[in-house]
Each structure stands twice: as structure tokens, then as C-alpha cells.
Amino acid sequence: MARRYCYNDVAPLIAMVTAVCTNVGVNILFKEATSKGMNQYIFITYSYVVAALVLLPLSFIFPRLFLLGLIGFLAQICAYKGIADSSPTLASAMSNLGPAFTFILAVLFRKIDFTGK
């Protein structure tokens, strides 16, 4: 029973907290690296090389990860361009708006029903 509780409740929470903390750390690292003269495209390339080495075995199991990675790559270029002109605090705050945008899209595409049926 305790193992099921850990897998169902604790593991997703730990994964989400880890993802958010990693995102904030990378935003701060990016701002520091670019303020010292590193090109933003070089930083993105380095981060994707590290991610590719870690996640490459999974792309053979889940082929949709390639498309997700491509979309994430384009989004990260836009995000880092914004961080270069503003602050990592603003970028971290903007990443918290993802669930709100997901909810709005779910309502627009009628994935959430408010009628109570």
C-alpha cells in the first residue's frame, strides 16, 4: 500500500518540483553566461547536446519525443532571446503561466465540460 502511495502521489510531485527547479537554475545560468559574453545560440546548442545524450535512448522507444524536442527547441530560442533582454526572474514567472494557458486551450477546444454532465 505504501509503495502505491509513493508512485501515485509522491513521485509526480517530486518530478514537478525537480523540473521547475531545473528550469529556474538554467535560466539563471543562461543570464550569467550571456552577460559575460557567451552567444545565446551557443548556450542553446550546449544545452541540447547534453539533453540529447541523456534522452537519446528514449527517442527510440517513444518516437514522438523528436517532434516534442523540435518544438521545445524553437520555444527555447524564443525564451532565451527574451531573457537576454529582461531577467531570469521574469522568465521563471512566465513559465508558471503554462497551466493557465493549458486550461484556456482545454476550454476553447471543449475538453472541459462546465454543464455537469
UniProtKB/TrEMBL annotation:
Source taxon at top rank: Eukaryota
**Claim: Membrane is one of the keywords in the record:** yes
The family annotation for this protein states: Belongs to the drug/metabolite transporter (DMT) superfamily. Plant drug/metabolite exporter (P-DME) (TC 2.A.7.4) family.
Q: Could you name the Gene Ontology cellular component terms for this entry?
A: membrane
Primary localisation category:
membrane
Q: Which UniProt keywords apply?
A: Membrane, Transmembrane, Transmembrane helix
Membrane topology note = Multi-pass membrane protein
Q: Where in the cell is it found?
A: Membrane
Q: Residue limits of the EamA domain? A: 17-114
One short Pfam name that applies is: EamA
Name listed for the protein in its UniProt record: WAT1-related protein
Membrane-traversing stretches: 12-29, 41-58, 89-109
Species, as recorded: Gossypium barbadense (Sea Island cotton)
* An annotated Gene Ontology molecular function: transmembrane transporter activity
